[in-house]
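Q: Protein A?
A:
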Amino acid sequence: MEQDIAQRLKLKIDSLIALYEAQVLENERLRTRLESTARQLEEKTQKVNTLEKQLNNLQLTSAIVGDAAGSNAAAKRKVEKLMREIDRCIGLLGNS
């Protein structure tokens, strides 16, 4: 009777150990996948930022050299925006 209880207890403990080891492996797999996904997200974020900068530069260039009606107004708005950004940066440097 006691041997039977001990045997069942041993089987349950072995089963729990096997489940634990399987979960450890699954956890490591998921951790690796998460790290990979985080790297991909960072790369995509950098790519989006680069493309946004390129788009802004192209829009500014187009506004400055464009021949369409109203291109002077668009160029003026872009230049004024850049001036505000420069003034803001100078203000931040002055507060340092």
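Q: Protein B?
A:
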Amino acid sequence: MTTPASAPGVSLVNGRPVGYAWKAPWRVDIGGAVKPGRNRLEVKVADLWVNRLIGDAQPGVAQKITSTPQPTYLPTAPLRPSGLIGPVTLLAPASGRTARLSEPRR
């Protein structure tokens, strides 16, 4: 399985963790976990820390998740591209075939 991402993530097949990806090429071998028939694939990706800091700086935030000794980002700072960026693709190494899964949930 391959998918572009911008932060570390874990892949699960049928509820079981099968591997972690934290850098390119963002691939996890799920071959030992899939079974004949339907399978459930989950990809959980972390957000970038800078985006969390910007989120906590937003007006009206009742409870901040982060803390820093000094303010680091303004509420108007742009969020960085983060998380799962693009579709998940399954690769079949023996045949060279690929299968694109449905678009990621946002």
